[in-house]
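Hey, I'm writing a tutorial for new members on how sequence and structure tokens pair up, and I'd like a real worked example in the thread rather than a made-up one. If someone can provide the structure for the chain below, I'll link this post from the tutorial.
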Amino acid sequence: MSKVVKVIEIMAESKESWEDAAMNAIKEASSTVDNIKSINISNMSAKVDKNKIVRYRINAQISFDVN
């Protein structure tokens, strides 16, 4: 039997870091999706206020097995 993997695109952010933003993406996706296998970060950006980063943002593709 063939294995089927589905990919969804997620945008997430964090006040702490890009790594934390990635963890937030996985956490949110896992609330509705099971069997997450990987995350691919396609874009990283940041919001700046008064010369300081105030939000770390990512665009990511999350893949998971389809049962």
